[in-house]
């Protein structure tokens, strides 16, 4: 019997696949990824990408199997126009998109630099239409219908992003869709301020899907820490494209994280995509290095500390579970994470000592473990952190259990 919740690489909850859980849902057979790291991600305060940065990240995204890359805003940036051209010259598999405001100049700029498709933003909440965009619903509807028609006539694939859709009157959303669907390839529902709950997102996507036969996409922000949960809920409801950024960078609290959605949809929902999971860790590090925006060490999926073990309980699970199945929900090689550290501190127990000794190729009687742990406890309190391997070896040396070798001195 095939168990989608458990393989040699992962073990997640079987309740995710209960009949009651999947009834009434309609996830796509294959989820597409529309990455906005180079545009929305660059809106993270303090992050600036040059043309060369965008080429480096664009290539990395392509290697990871991302379907579409939103390169930037050609209508306002010469650097972005050149970045689109440079990525076209790189002959990527991914389709290149440009971000456009609701005007012909932006659309023409996107066309001029060779974009395959464009995302046009259009507000749908009364607040955003009136105050942020200083227009009326009728004027906005007239402009978006005219501009989407123009974009299609120029051979561009148009994705219409419904800004602030989760604070909108869905009657307005329906009017926008009905007046533009002839010219648009798809519509993206945006939880622009991250203010909806997953169940609300599920219901919104179902209702918007009933308004049109065109594909529905999901674009979430993380102000309440719900971007990934909301994106997964949207996919369950039938959204066929997820908008994401690497490491979740983006305006304010950021966007939906590519790694979380890629692994979440595959392992927790059984939905396939073109994402090469083994590239996730490398991609994360590339974007962190180029952007200068560090990944929190406990960041889900790609954090440097995710597979580190320091507590006594975690070490026991690691030592007793076959291939770490009792210690982790998925294997580190699944996402291409080469990092693992067995750490020692006041939180550690006998299994930490046992595993660290095995790692260092040493043998010490288990009768010595209590004293070793006592010394580890005191030393980690003094330094307010975990011990290095050299510090652990010093403890063993002080106890007469180890003699330093030349290579230890060279390492120190």
Explain how this protein is built.
- It is built from 16 helices and nine strands.
- It is α/β, with parallel strands linked by helices and 412 residues long.
- Strand 6 (186-191), helix 8 and strand 7 form a beta-alpha-beta unit.
- It is elongated.
- The termini are far apart.
- The mean pLDDT is 93.
- Could you tell me the radius of gyration in angstroms? 25 Å
CATH class of the largest domain: Alpha Beta
CATH topology term of the largest domain: TIM Barrel
Portion of residues in helices?
40-55%
- The rounded distance between the terminal residues' Cα atoms is 52 Å
Give the SSE order as H and E letters.
Answer: HEHEHEHEHHEHEHEHEHEHHHHHH
**What is the molecular shape?**
elongated
**Strand proportion:** 5-15%
Q: What is the strand tally?
A: 9
Tally of domains? 2
Query: Which structural class do the helices and strands define?
Result: alpha/beta
- So, the CATH homologous superfamily of the largest domain? Aldolase class I
What oligomerization state is this entry in? single chain
The CATH architecture designation of the largest domain is: Alpha-Beta Barrel
**Main sheet summary:** 8 strands, parallel, barrel
pLDDT averaged residue by residue = 93
